[in-house]
Each structure stands twice: as C-alpha cells, then as structure tokens.
Design brief:
By secondary structure, the chain is of the alpha+beta class. It has 8 helices and 11 strands. Helix 1 crosses helix 5 and helix 4 packs across helix 5. The longest helix has 25 residues.
C-alpha cells in the first residue's frame, strides 16, 4: 500500500483481523505446548477476544465493532468473556469502528490505556531488500530453539517490560505458530536479537522483535526487517504490517525500511472490580 493511498474500512478490517487471528493462534499454540495455561478465544461482533492469562499482553480483543452496528448485548457478551476469566476487558480499537460502539463505550466506565500506530508497506515480488549491516547476519530459528527465542526477545525489552511468566509463555506461543517464522540476528557470530513474521491473507505481520542491550545501534533490527520482508515475499504476501508505540525506536526502524503509518489504535480497559461494584 503506497504512502498517501486512501485507507478504507475494508483494508482496516483486514489489518485488524491479522492481529486478531495472531492472538487466537498464540492461544491455540499455548494450549498444545503448555496445556496447564488456561486459554480461550471467542468471535464476537466481527472481532476476536482472546484470553491467555490475567496479566498476559495477548488477553485482549481485536476487530470488535468493524462489521456494522454493535448492540449492548454484544458488548455485554464481550465483557462477560473477560470477566468470567477474572480479567479486565481490554479493547484494541481502530478509528473505523461503528459509531454505535463509540456511544456504548461512552456510557460505560472504560479508561484510556494507551495508543499504538499501525504501519504498512507494499511488497513488490521482484524487490531486493537492503542487506544486513557489516558484521550482522540473520538465520532462521530452528524448531528446538523456542526457549532461546523467548529469552532473547524478553531480555531485549526487559528494561521497559520485566518478563513475567505470562509474557514468557505468550512469546513462546508465537514461536509455535504454524504460519509464522522466527529469526535470530547475529553480530560477529553472537546472537544479538530476534524477531518473527507470519503470513495471512497476503499480509506479512511483523512482531516479536527486540535487540539485546549490548548490540543496539548496530543495524540488528534493519537486518531482521529485511530478512522478514524477503520471507514474506516468498510466501506471496503483497503487504507487510506491524504495530509500534508512537515515536519509538521501533517506529523509526520500520519507517526507515519504507513503512508508513495508516492509523492509530486506542486501547480501552474496563476493570472487573468496577463491574462487581455496580452489581452490588
């Protein structure tokens, strides 16, 4: 998708469902390799709600409100999904949601949690992607390297997000996605970072990336982006997408690689305690 091209509801829906399916597949992978973890996923009002633990970053809903008007009963059902698992209701909303959902949320005690930016880039079949910086190489993660991938990714952003057990589990869950592939970046032969990509609906989803502190500003992420672009092109993807925090190093890295922002998401949260107080 070229910079400046009109972004419509249909395209936004495709992007949001990539994230929604990603969460569901993480839950499905967890159910297989870590059956002790309680997981659930449910389709509601065009979106997918996922539960992989009360404090899990994957416990949230994507795509909700993009299939037309939303009823109070559907929002009740979504809230019941999260509350029944002891979790807060967490909604990742894109600006294309139906107006009825805006009105419903405005009448309930949701709080604004954060913003994130959705970026995209066209993938041309014959395109040659920028090679890795000097001294940086990238290799495919092997099937038995789930724990290593998980450690590298979580160690890479431990300064901002201390690794909880739930975080370790979901990162490993993404490693086991059947439609995805993980990569390691090496600097002078030593593992310096890691990242993942998955292919769905001709869209390559880039996620799960971090660089270990001692290897930053060495071109690690640029190399991982280029390698994943090559992989996505080989899978027949026409578009690459990722989500970053606003004005972060990740956003800058992807913009340097030709990505551009198409819209921002808003995360809304409703705590379970509030619901219980109202029912007293």
């Amino acid at each position: 998708m070229k910079s400046g091209q009109f972004v419509d509801l249909a395209f936004a829906k495709r992007l949001e469902m990539v994230s929604a399916v990603s969460g569901r597949e993480c839950a499905q992978a967890l159910h297989v390799f870590a059956p002790h973890v309680l997981t659930a996923a449910e389709e509601i009002a065009g979106g997918i709600a996922v539960f992989t633990g009360v404090d899990s970053p994957v416990t949230q809903a994507f795509g909700f409100g993009l299939d037309g008007p939303v009823s109070a009963a559907e929002l009740d059902r979504l809230e019941a999904f999260f509350f029944s698992h002891g979790a807060a209701v967490t909604l990742e909303l894109c600006p294309f949601i139906d107006r009825t959902l805006v009105e419903l949320l405005g009448a309930r005690p949701y709080r604004l949690e954060e913003f994130s930016n959705v970026l995209v880039r066209d993938i041309a079949g014959a395109e040659a992607f920028r090679p890795a910086a000097s001294g940086v190489t990238v290799r495919t993660a092997k099937p038995g390297e789930a724990k290593l991938y998980t450690k590298v990714v979580t160690d890479g952003f431990a300064e901002q997000v201390p690794p909880t057990q739930s975080l370790l589990e979901v990162v490993e869950g993404f490693f086991h996605r059947p439609r995805g592939q993980c990569f390691f970046a090496l600097v002078d032969g030593e593992i310096a970072g890691a990242a993942a990509v998955a292919a769905q609906d001709e869209i390559g989803e880039f996620y799960g990336a971090s660089t270990l502190p001692g290897f930053r500003n060495r071109g690690v992420q640029a190399a991982l982006i280029a390698e994943r672009m090559t992989w996505a092109a080989q899978q027949g993807c026409k578009i690459a997408t990722t989500t970053t925090g606003p004005a972060t190093a990740s956003q800058r890295n992807f913009e340097r690689a030709g990505f551009h922002i198409v819209y921002s998401r808003t995360k809304l949260v409703r705590n379970r305690e509030i619901k219980e107080k109202e029912s007293e």
